[in-house]
Amino acid sequence: MKSTVLGLVTSAAMAFGLLTLEAPPAAAEPVRYEAAYVFGDSLSDPGNFFALTEALTGTGQPGFPYFEGRVSNGPVWADYLEADFARAGLPFRNYAFAFARVVTPTPAAPGLPASDLPINLTDQLGRFALDAPTGVPARSVAMVWLGANDSFNIISNTLTQIGGGADAGLATLAAIGAAQAVAQQLLDSLSVLAPAGIRDLVLFNLPDLGQIPRFFGTPAQMLASTVSGAFNAELAAGTVAGVNLRRFDVAALFDELVATPTNFGVRSLEACLVDATLCLDPNDRAFFDQEHPSAPVHARLGSEVRALVAPIPLPAGVWMLLAGLVALGAVRRQARGRARSAELVSTYFDTVDGRLTRRGVNLRVRRKGDLYVQTVKTDPVEGFLRREWETPVGGPEPELEALEAAERARIADVDARDADL
Q1: How far apart are the C-alpha atoms of 205 and 227, rounded to whole Å?
Q2: Is the pLDDT of residue 354 over 50?
Q3: N or C: where does the chain have the smaller number of CB atoms within 10 Å of the terminal CB?
Q4: Residue 159: count of CB within 10 angstroms of its CB
């Protein structure tokens, strides 16, 4: 089992640009922002559900073969955008949780692992309000992709009703009404964003759920398409008060995937993980499991979103303090001449405006004799333990590649130990 919060490790590294995720950005010129906030479910979750379940039970979910707490075999679309904002030193907060719904299950849905956990839209908006009690930066954007889990619930309930003898036509009409109600509740719930200072809202619709492996070719295919279509139509007709509403058409992008998978770098629309059996070519598949896109599809989604949203570019002077600290360290070393081998010399690094410190990150290079050790520490995140990475380096300047290599080695060691269990 994967018992380490790999999602938090990755997020901490992204916070100051140590991990690099590259997806070729689309050609359109994006709107640039000072801060970005994501609300969603497993399609956007960067490891939040994994971290929560590990904290509660000691075992994070989803575990192997999923990638570092994501519900896919690689980074999700939001990871690419988070890396962009991290490189610019700008805030990016992802509140998405796997299993999240627009409508909080009441009472708890039987059999749903997340039924009693604080992960749904209301909970995510509550965390956002706590994080930004006095508002957000003037040029802030929110991105919202929710409704799939609500739709799955509607489809499941409708099939149960029909199986129990209910009229199929009437049950389908009720399902359409339920999907429309979810979309309207989503729009209504997001009205809290404008008073908090969110200027723009990028609202994602749903793909045709009848085309995903869970439903395609089954008796539920037409119902799934109908439910997601009704949700999308209601979403398209609605507005959110006080924000500039920008729409991201996942449905159209998904239609392109179905028609031409090679445009997304995949060859098959089949799922890789089916009934605990894993395929040998996950990056050739459009879906990693019966419901969730594979890494190549998420990379394409990331590219498309990056055509709409981007951080304000990092000023050229941001790294001046870092360069000055390195130069100062060299002057000090020259002035000291031959230091005693037992002497410890520690140099701390930050950007010119202290962004590492504000993000709870300490970057230090310590010399003891002829040896140099680089240490990166992060403040505790939402109740989790303080993280620390220590790696030997060749000299007095930070070597961020050494941290990335050390983290890859640590993850490989965890995977090796998992294989022995």
Answers
A1: 12
A2: yes
A3: C
A4: 18
DSSP H or E segment with residue 372: strand 371-378
pLDDT band at 2 (very low <50, low <70, confident <90, very high): very low
Q: How many residues does the chain have?
A: 421
Tell me how far apart the alpha carbons of residues 373 and 405 are, in angstroms, rounded to a whole number.
15
CB atoms within 10 A of CB 100: 30
- Residue 326, classed as helix, strand or coil, is helix
Residue 246 parent element (H or E): strand 244-248
CB 386 within 8 A of CB 9: no
Tens digit of each residue's pLDDT (9 = 90 or more) over 203-224: 999 999 999 999 999 999 999 9
Q: Which of 12-16, 208-212, 324-328, 415-419 is most confident?
A: 208-212
Q: C-alpha angle 49/25/404, rounded to 5°?
A: 55
Tokens of 342: 């037992």
- Tens of pLDDT along 31-60? 999 999 999 999 999 999 999 999 999 999
Percentages of the chain per state (helix, strand, coil), in multiples of 5: 40, 15, 40
Cα first-last separation, the chain: 7
CB atoms within 10 A of CB 129: 12
CA distance 275 to 290: 9
The pLDDT value given to residue 398: 83
Distances from the Cα of 326 to the Cα of 125, 187, 365, angstroms: 42, 50, 10
pLDDT of 337 higher than 80: no
Helical spans, DSSP H, in 118-220: 121-131, 148-163, 168-189
Contact 350, 364 (CB under 8 A): no
Q: Is the predicted pLDDT of residue 144 greater than 60, yes or no?
A: yes
